[in-house]
């Protein structure tokens, strides 16, 4: 399976604009077997399926995980981990 290198996670914010977080493909897989993506800080982590389903993952204690309103791939798909 091929997965995009980068996604935008769009969260509803209380202000005029939504919050957008860019996450990048990591070498890890989540509980569902899909790749885990994280932002540059490593704080925002998400397992994203091949159908665009998102499972947010805690990166530390006391996090309140919100689900994004929209998930949008930003880069072309690349070969899955360990395949050419």
Automatic annotation (TrEMBL):
Top-level lineage group: Bacteria
Record-linked InterPro entries: DUF6296 (IPR046263)
Pfam families hit by this protein: DUF6296 (PF19813)
Protein name: DUF6296 family protein
